[in-house]
Amino acid sequence: MTVNVETQRKNDKDSYYYEDDSNVDTYFSDDRIDIPQTETTGFSFRKLWAFTGPGFLMSIAYLDPGNIESDLQSGAIAQYRLLWVLFISTILGFVMQCLSSKLGVVTGLHLAEMCYRQYKKVPRLITWIMIEIAVIGSDMQEVIGTAIAIYLLSNKVIPLWAGCLITIVDTFTFLFLDKYGLRKLELFFSLLIGIMGVTFGYEYIVTAPPSGEVSKGLFVPWCSNCNSDILLQAVGVVGAVIMPHNLYLHSALVKSRNIDRKKPEKISEANFYYAIESALALIISLIINIFVVSVFASGMYGKTNNELLDMCKNQSDSMYDMAKEEFDVKPYNFLKL
């Protein structure tokens, strides 16, 4: 009788860590990517390529309009002094994303499913409401920010309300892209990240901010002569990088790979390659964010409206006319507009 009880306890413990969801209709349950088997036991680029994808989909959240807006404000307000906050926040984000991916790999459940199974009804509902509010708050700035970008890029031809509608439509379009194949979706978003890297990298090269100041701001955790506005912006940088909903996303994306969770060595292998892939994706996103901060720090920090207008006038008359419509020609600081 004692043996049977101990066996039952062991089985209950094992079932807690491993969830056999082969008969459960959940996200990615019908479209999983097989991991190639190699004869060698060391590092394999074939396996890394098979595991590559979820991390880059996740890293899009580190490059969304909210992050770009936070970067440009950080550069315009504090110049290069908050780059170390961005750097450390990205490291903390990497740690959180690794924990999120491990949850999905080890249990076979994403974070929402795990909360549903482990929490009682009241804390479960509170968690759900909090996350819904966070998603709504995040999406509002994304929709409005994209609408403003479309408005500016179209030279005011597309009004803000039309830009919001376009953003909503393309959001649902992206949601249905995975129906054409998960790898195609991952490749598409990787292409978008590559385009951002090339364009912002070009701006960085053209602007040519001082490398010494950029390096100092990135690796020296200090902020001299920082006021309350800069402190508030530092909090905004952390909030823009570390996002709770991204943890739910990453824990679900890692389920897209066909991993034999009954074998501990396969779980360790998956965690290893997912950590490498997440690190590569976040390094790329960090570099792009550094580009944005540095460009705006070089071009906008400490500039008045008149100085900005003079810069536009030196570029072209049409740019100068557009700038006059946006800014009052007063000797106020650009950041006070």
From TrEMBL:
Signal peptide: none annotated. The chain crosses the membrane at residues 83-105, 158-177, 189-210, 230-249, 270-297. Keywords: Membrane, Transmembrane, Transmembrane helix, Transport. InterPro entries: NRAMP_fam. It holds the Pfam family Nramp. It is a multi-pass membrane protein. It is found in: Membrane. Its main location: membrane. It comes from the Eukaryota. GO terms for cellular component: membrane. Belongs to the NRAMP family. This is Uncharacterized protein.
